[in-house]
Design brief:
The chain has three helices and seven strands. By secondary structure, it is of the alpha+beta class. The chain has a single domain (25-198), classed as Peptide deformylase (Peptide Deformylase). The strands form two sheets. A five-stranded antiparallel beta sheet has the order 1-2-3-6-7, with helices on both faces. It is globular. It starts with 46 loop residues before the first helix and ends with a helix.
Length: 204
């Protein structure tokens, strides 16, 4: 998920979770892997999973994201990572495998939302203001993550990805069309910036 205007992102320090990671290509809307429920992870604690998490964190930061699901780098796996600011300036960093989401409050919030797989576009979307996600970490230990505000939106956005849904699927047909038109207008600039950033971060 992205929450800042694509061409004017906010820089954040690279988290320790990204150390040793490489940048993967981000899949875009229309790729079949983004449009069906992903497969549950049944084998935990592997070196492959550990490296995948590093790559996902690194890729997310290259693209100025606050969340990234495995199918956004082409993998049919039910997992996501996040590095999302909280409402009081705190920084939420973590990952969830096989996430299951529960809405925990009655309030709804409408705000702009974007997606790394719909590059250069954003639209206002109404979502619950408070949620909890349960799943596992990469070692197979139970994980429970609760969030409000922007972090709640991030948890919902990424869990949606593992279910095969994009934020544009929650828009009206007219708003979806506007979002895709915005993507077509801005995509080239966003992709060029990502490529330049990937090279720069790989050297540092």
């Amino acid at each position: 998920m992205s929450h800042t205007p694509p061409l004017h992102p906010v820089e954040r320090p690279l988290p320790a979770e990204a150390a040793g990671g490489i940048c993967r290509e981000i899949t875009e809307i229309g790729n079949p892997v983004l449009h069906h429920r992903c497969a549950d992870i049944t084998e935990f604690g592997t070196a492959e999973l550990s490296q995948l998490l590093k790559d996902m964190f690194f890729t997310m930061h290259v693209a100025h994201g606050v969340g990234l699901a495995a199918n956004q780098i082409g993998l049919d796996l039910r997992m996501f990572v996040y590095d999302c600011p909280g409402e009081r300036g705190e920084r939420h960093i973590g990952h969830v495998l096989n996430p299951e989401l529960q809405v925990t409050g009655e309030y709804l919030i409408t705000r702009g939302e974007g997606c790394l797989s719909v590059p250069g576009a954003s639209r206002e979307l109404t979502r619950p203001a408070s949620v909890t996600v349960r799943g596992h970490d990469w070692r197979g230990q139970p994980v429970t993550v609760s969030g409000t505000g922007l972090f709640a939106r991030c948890l919902q956005h990424e869990t949606d990805h593992t279910d095969g849904a994009l934020y544009v699927d929650r828009l009206t047909p007219e708003e979806r069309s506007r979002s895709l038109a915005q993507m077509y207008d801005n995509r080239a600039a966003v992709m060029a910036e990502r490529a330049e950033r990937a090279l720069s971060m790989a050297r540092s």
